[in-house]
Write a structure and sequence with these properties.
Rossmann fold, single chain, alpha/beta, Elongation Factor Tu (Ef-tu), domain 3, Four Helix Bundle (Hemerythrin (Met), subunit A), 47% helix, six-stranded antiparallel β-sheet, 437 residues
């Protein structure tokens, strides 16, 4: 699958978000407790509070957004999947702009009573290195956020945006330490911001600039490349040395040396009982259209595994799997892994396709279905039957609270089913992949 983080921007208050908000809030709280209000004008006090808390809160949020991009395993657990971590990364990155933009706005308001129109000069103040760095950081962040909104979201675009974000963060951090007298007098705030900024900068250098230099990868080689109906390609890789251990439903970052130097995320389709890795990838862009050019023996680099869509978070005896198009890939991995297990839950797999001729993995899924009575598999032609609602799909389940619902498919399908799960009160039983790879 190929990445897009725009499936659904709804944010659920998981452990990851609670931890994030606590860490982000520390600098603003520390500043408030250390601020001497004195006999200042109420408007000046209010504007100063907004300016400073927005500056420190925005900087902490900006730093935390970069830290979340580091693909640390701890975040994978706290946010229930790296896909959810990237949603949080983008959420905090965009929200930090609102806070950082509030900083000069509030400072302008605070100076209006004394300076009048001259108070607006703060927006073009380049009188010192610190001010120049601050302007570069703020205006650069505005341009990057606008770019990410209006640009067509592709993986290459995301990588480029992230690189610029890191550079603008470093400029903003230098501005804060060079221009902030508060950081010189408030020891707790100073050391907290040093630690947070350092971790963000190191994460950016490690994952965005140095890439493979410090971040290890598995060496694989291409053993098979097959073009299949539906503009898809079936790729199999054999390990050169170490074998990647993964759980069904997870994805990896994959790079083919003969095509591109950028890593792209793809869901694993193979079962866990084989040393080979299999990927079924739909041609959706410039990069994926080049994959058919791969040849036997071409080198591949694999990073991972990542993702929380692992079928291990449901205690239910019955499971409903819903796949749309290329979203069948994590279910293929799980089905191929389960066929070697003696303990099977009762599984119903519904596979929605635009054409039945484009159904992927039919032979292996039919084979598994015939050999395991608890596994039921159906291919549904969307043109003939349409996209069934979750309510209709669940009608044949007598006890709804005992069903774990897993879904992976295109963004419109996922959005519709997520809303239907909320309406039916089944949100806690609903598990999904946030990417549309």
């Amino acid at each position: 699958m190929v990445d897009s983080m725009d499936v659904d921007k709804n944010v659920r208050l998981t452990k990851g978000y609670v931890l994030s908000l606590l860490l982000i809030g520390v600098p603003s709280i520390a500043w408030i407790f250390g601020f001497e209000f004195g006999d200042r004008d109420p408007i000046e006090i209010s504007a100063t509070i907004i300016a400073k808390t927005a500056a420190f809160g925005g900087m902490a949020m900006f730093a935390w957004s970069l830290i979340l991009s580091g693909r640390y395993k701890l975040f994978d657990t706290l946010f229930h999947g790296l896909d959810k971590v990237y949603i949080a990364h983008r959420f905090f990155g965009t929200a930090s702009l609102a806070l950082l933009l509030s900083h000069p706005i509030a400072l302008t308001i605070a100076r209006l009573p004394d300076r009048g129109f001259d108070a607006f000069g703060i927006w073009t103040a380049f009188g010192s290195t610190a001010l120049v760095l601050g302007m570069v950081s703020l205006y650069g962040l505005i341009l990057v956020v606008v770019w990410s909104i209006i640009a067509k979201v592709k993986h290459e675009t995301f990588i480029a945006i992230h690189t610029w974000l890191g550079l603008f963060f470093i400029a903003g951090a230098l501005h804060a330490f060079m221009a902030g007298s508060v950081l010189a007098t408030n020891e707790l705030l100073r050391w907290y911001m040093i630690a947070l900024s350092s971790l963000a900068t190191l994460t950016f250098i490690h994952y965005s600039l140095l890439k493979d230099v410090l971040h290890g990868y598995y060496k694989y080689k291409v053993t098979s490349v097959k073009k299949i109906p539906g503009n898809m390609v079936d790729i199999q890789l054999m390990p050169k040395y170490r074998i990647l251990k993964f759980q069904p439903g997870q994805f990896v970052y994959l790079r083919f040396d003969t095509i591109d130097e950028t890593y792209h995320p793809f869901t694993i389709s193979s079962g866990t009982r084989t040393s080979e890795l299999r990927f079924i990838i739909k041609e959706l862009g410039d990069y994926t259209s080049q994959l058919t050019r791969l040849k036997h023996g071409d080198k591949a680099r694999v990073k991972g595994p990542y993702g929380g869509f692992t079928f291990r978070d449901s205690p239910h005896d019955k499971q409903l799997w819903i796949a749309g198009g290329i979203g069948i890939t994590p279910f293929l991995s799980k089905a191929n892994s389960l066929q070697h297990s003696k303990m099977w839950p009762e599984i119903e797999l519904l596979y929605f396709v635009k054409k039945t001729s484009e159904a992927v993995g039919e032979l292996e899924l039919n084979h598994i279905s015939k050999n395991h009575k608890s596994f039921h598999y159906s291919v549904i032609d969307e043109k003939k039957f349409g996209m069934q609602s979750l309510h209709d799909v669940l009608e044949h389940f007598s006890v709804l609270h005992d069903v774990g619902i897993y879904i992976c498919g295109p963004p419109p399908m996922l959005r519709a089913y997520k809303q239907q799960a909320r309406d039916l009160g089944l949100e806690d039983q609903f598990f999904f992949e946030e990417f549309s790879y």
